[in-house]
């Protein structure tokens, strides 16, 4: 027991933590309640299942903080990034994957590792002894969440996360829709045509907004509040903030030219991104929703090109749970009250697949180092990974702590960088160059 690492949760963070610790020579037991105990959002018992988008977002490691995080995870031999690269789909400048093939490959890699064993069970209480990583994610079971609250004496924070619908490609009317990535981004023709675009006139957009606002929505349970994370707002919540909000968000028409009517500028555009390698499924980008199923079908069929669409999956909404990490965790991601317990992934208050997996990577390496008698310091705060762990373990304001994506605002500023919009590209390149050098030193110091 003393030299074994136990991990609760087989999502992005738990899978990456298990891989990193096992690669360091530490025996791992991965505890996962699925498929015996189901959740609202998961469809299978596979590890690292993608329940929302199939995108890991920007892959630009020179001028984007998410792309930099991709680079760091690849440099550290990350299972999630390596598997994503092998199952990537055309998505312009983003890294999108065939979600089923991706999670199946992660599952196969973990199950074939000689140092990883598995316990198909639900853990309902925080363990009092042994080395553990809690990586149960935003869908932490009620019993374990209660145990966390009882142990810490703090109320668990919560927000609501919504899932976008998926459409069968063959039911999209390509006489109306066309294929193009925004600004024709991508090095290959496949990349430059990675998205399907559905144009709207002003009248069509206004009618769509009216229907969206009038549609039946999922009701919350008594005592629950809709504390949404801004990076994953349901479209109807965005519409409630102003009729033009969607047109300047996921439905913005910029960088796109209608192949059927190049002389006409669309008032708004709905984009769909390929969801599997076969190209038979497409998800509606940014269309997370809490509309009831019947309402979704009728409202989404108002979109030009989707009037005869069939849906492989409709949108949904679920509760996300996360702890107030700045008050509860030390810089080793350990619970201050019980240092034998580490937390990783979205339950710590990072947001996104990549960020969750990155915190799993860190937790796995830190736990392995501790079990082997050492101590691994976190990466420098000037790195993407270091900026995130610094944010959740003390850099954030505890009273207003909310889920956070990686972004350059978390990085210590560059002393010699041009300010303003004109200097932004050079400044971002400066951030990534500095981060890569420091992260490379952090890896080298581990031998």
UniProtKB/TrEMBL annotation:
Output the lineage of the source organism: Bacteria, Pseudomonadati, Pseudomonadota, Alphaproteobacteria, Rhodobacterales
Enzyme Commission (EC) number: 2.1.1.74
Q: What class of enzyme is it?
A: transferase
GO BP terms, alphabetized: tRNA methylation; tRNA wobble uridine modification
The Swiss-Prot or TrEMBL record describes its family as follows: Belongs to the MnmG family. TrmFO subfamily.
Q: Do you know which SUPFAM superfamilies this protein is assigned to?
A: FAD/NAD(P)-binding domain
* Residues in MnmG N-terminal domain copies: 5-373
Q: Which InterPro entries match?
A: FAD/NAD-bd_sf (IPR036188), MnmG-rel (IPR002218), MnmG-rel_CS (IPR020595), MnmG_N (IPR040131), TrmFO (IPR004417)
Please give the catalytic activity noted in the UniProt record: uridine(54) in tRNA + (6R)-5,10-methylene-5,6,7,8-tetrahydrofolate + NADPH + H(+) = 5-methyluridine(54) in tRNA + (6S)-5,6,7,8-tetrahydrofolate + NADP(+); uridine(54) in tRNA + (6R)-5,10-methylene-5,6,7,8-tetrahydrofolate + NADH + H(+) = 5-methyluridine(54) in tRNA + (6S)-5,6,7,8-tetrahydrofolate + NAD(+)
Whether Methyltransferase counts among this entry's keywords is yes
Q: NADP: present as a keyword of the record?
A: yes
Q: Which cofactor does it need?
A: FAD
What does UniProt give as GO cellular component? cytosol
Instruction: State what protein this is by name.
Output: Methylenetetrahydrofolate--tRNA-(uracil-5-)-methyltransferase TrmFO
Q: Name one GO molecular function term.
A: tRNA (uracil(54)-C5)-methyltransferase activity, 5,10-methylenetetrahydrofolate-dependent
- List, alphabetically, the PANTHER family matched: GLUCOSE INHIBITED DIVISION PROTEIN A (PTHR11806), METHYLENETETRAHYDROFOLATE--TRNA-(URACIL-5-)-METHYLTRANSFERASE TRMFO (PTHR11806:SF2)
- NCBIfam families per UniProt: gid_trmFO (TIGR00137), PRK05335.1 (NF003739)
